[in-house]
Structures are given as structure tokens and as C-alpha cells.
């Protein structure tokens, strides 16, 4: 939520994911422009790839995040809450 708020304060379009439908509204309140429910294959849901991705889950979702970034884009991994 903090990363979303910081990005929005800098005028960034923010798309976020959550695995829990109950957290969708919380993400929007924090500033997310778009929230997707992550079923483990978010790349299949993404219509347009992103310039940058901020990966907080870690190695369990990193491959999927890499599929969502534009060629030459950046994926920043800052967390490992996936326990792997």
C-alpha cells in the first residue's frame, strides 16, 4: 500500500494485484488505478505490458511478473513473502 501511495504522489499509473478479492477495494483506496485478482498466472490477464513492475512476493511470482514487463522494462524485486 505504501508503494502505491508513493507512486501515485509522483503521478504514476498504478496497476496492482492481490490474491484476495476482499483486498481489492483496499488497493483502490490506496491509489491503485487498476486491481487484478492474481490466480497465479497474471500475465494471461494483462492486456498491455508495463514499463516497470515492483515485485513484492518474490521468487514464487517473479516469472509471471517478467512476462508482464515490456521488452527493455524493469522488474524491481523488493520482497520475498512467498517463502521461497
Structure report:
The structure is a single chain. With 84 residues, this protein is an alpha/beta fold. The protein contains three helices and four strands, in the order H-E-H-E-E-H-E. The protein folds into two domains: 1-37, no CATH class; 39-84, no CATH class. 29% of the residues lie in helices and 27% in strands. It has a two-stranded parallel sheet. Strands 3-4 form a two-stranded parallel sheet. The longest helix has 9 residues, at 59-67. The radius of gyration is 12 Å and the shape is globular.
In short:
By secondary structure, the protein is α/β, with parallel strands linked by helices.
Q: Which tags fit this structure?
A:
84 residues, alpha/beta, 2 domains, two-stranded parallel sheet, 3 helices, globular
Structural class by helix and strand composition: alpha/beta
Measured on Cα atoms, how large is the radius of gyration?
A: 12 Å
Measured between the Cα atoms of the first and last residue, the distance is: 22 Å
Strand order of the largest sheet: 1-2
H-E string: HEHEEHE
**Percentage of helical residues?**
25-40%
Number of strands: 4
Let me know the largest β-sheet.
2 strands, parallel
Hey, roughly how much beta strand do the residues contain?
A: 25-35%
Shape field: globular
Task: Report mean pLDDT, rounded to a whole number.
Answer: 91
